[in-house]
Fold these 2 entries.
Entry 1:
Amino acid sequence: MPCLTVIVASTRPGRVGRRIGDWFTAIAAAHGAFDDVRLVDLAEVGLPFHDEPQHPSEGRYLHRHTREWSGTVAAGDAFVFVMPEYNYGFSAPLKNAIDYLYAEWRYKPVGFVSYGMTSGGLRAVQMIKQVVTTLKMVPVNEAVTVFLREALDDAGELVPDPARAAAAEVMLDEVARLTAALAPLRVPA
Ligand SMILES: Cc1cc2nc3c(=O)[nH]c(=O)nc-3n(C[C@H](O)[C@H](O)[C@H](O)COP(=O)(O)O)c2cc1C
């Protein structure tokens, strides 16, 4: 069975992203379609701003951090980005992490768990579709949209929400379907 990699896309101190990432990763692990569910936190990965001299499509990486990031992404058959909305867009650390690589992303589905104060991150998701399709990733329409004003309690913890959990299941069903359908196109990076 395939490997699902959940990427937490915010890195700032005090962020909500890791809590949402942990919540989603637990749901994905229990879902059943993926025998290997990995949470990758960009705050822990700690990539510098893109610093490779060659275009990523060359796959010739100078730096150890790039080779390690390449291995992490190559191991995933599918992705879910847990992503905030910042100024109507997606986060700079996520764009940087995407730009480092090329073939490692190709022919892999990507689902979105987005969140924001006002929009639930919907505008950021629309924006990132243009980027991921350039890399031949296949964005999944079914998504989880978290409106933080309602989703967090006074302590900043996620309030349990059956509708949110149901949305995650529906998204994972579709990610799994596309993971299988795209498998013949994937080649090792
Ligand atoms: C720089 C910045 C820009 C933001 N812009 C938006 C926005 O455009 N739309 C929105 O709904 N929320 C916006 N917010 C609110 C964030 O979605 C909210 O603070 C969220 O917790 C950020 O994710 P994080 O805690 O994982 O960093 C913004 C927050 C920051 C820090």
Note: Residues 10, 12, 15-17, 84-88, 116-119, 148 surround flavin mononucleotide (CB under 6 Å).
Entry 2:
Amino acid sequence: MQTVKSVITWIVLGGSAATLAACTTTKPPAEKPAAAPAAPITAAAAANMGSNCFTCHGPEGRSPGSIPSLHGKTAESLVKTLQDFKSGARPSTVMARHAKGYSDAEIAAIAKYISSFK
Ligand code: HEC
């Protein structure tokens, strides 16, 4: 009887150990850390990027020459135009190259900055 009991004990213990082991090995791989969210674009960063535009489009987007003014345009319309330049939907000489250099979030931030001049 003693032998049977110890065999049963062995099975029970072994069984639970095996279950534990199975639990450990079948555990799903550690969750991948979520892709780091893009750093939020600060107002200063938006101003830096937006100021590049003023080299051609004039201070605060008030163009002194033949390049169209950006002053007075809404953020929505600037985003739309820049996205169209980026995709090529709107033909351009230089703007596609500029627009392609910015992420969607950057374009939104630049548009907000440029449209902030009243
Ligand atoms: C090298 C000069 C230059 C720079 C820098 C530049 N642009 Fe332009 N932009 C142009 C020219 C030229 C056009 C006319 C379209 C074309 O030929 O590319 C234009 C057109 C535009 C238009 C369309 C305006 C309209 O009424 O038709 C928008 C909007 C615009 N640019 C936004 C920007 C923004 C925002 C930036 C900064 C990220 C920027 N541009 C930087 C030269 C420039």
Note: The chain is about 60% helix and 0% strand.
